[in-house]
Amino acid sequence: MHSSSSKPILSFWQLWNMSFGFFGIQFGFALQNANTSRIFSTLGANPDDLSLFWLAAPVTGLLVQPVIGYLSDNTWHPRWGRRRPFFFVGALLASIALFLMPNSSALWMAVAVLWLMDGAINVSMEPFRAFVGDKLGPSQQTAGFAMQTFFIGWGAVIASMLPTIFAHMGVNNVPMAGAIPDTVRYSFYAGGAIYMAAVMWTVLTAQEAPPENLEAFRAEQRAGKGLGHALKEIMGGFTRMPKTMLQLAAVQFFTWIALFAMWIYTTNAIGENVFGTTDAQSAAFQEAGNHVGVMFAVYSGVSALAAFILPIFARHTSRKFVHMSCLVIGGVSLFSIYAIHDMDLLYLPMIGVGVAWASILTMPYAILAGALPAKRMGYYMGVFNFFIVIPQIVSGLLLGFVTKHWFAGHSVKTLMLGGVCMVVAGVLTLAVRDNAEPVAK
Question: pTM for the whole thing?
Answer without folding.
Answer: 0.70
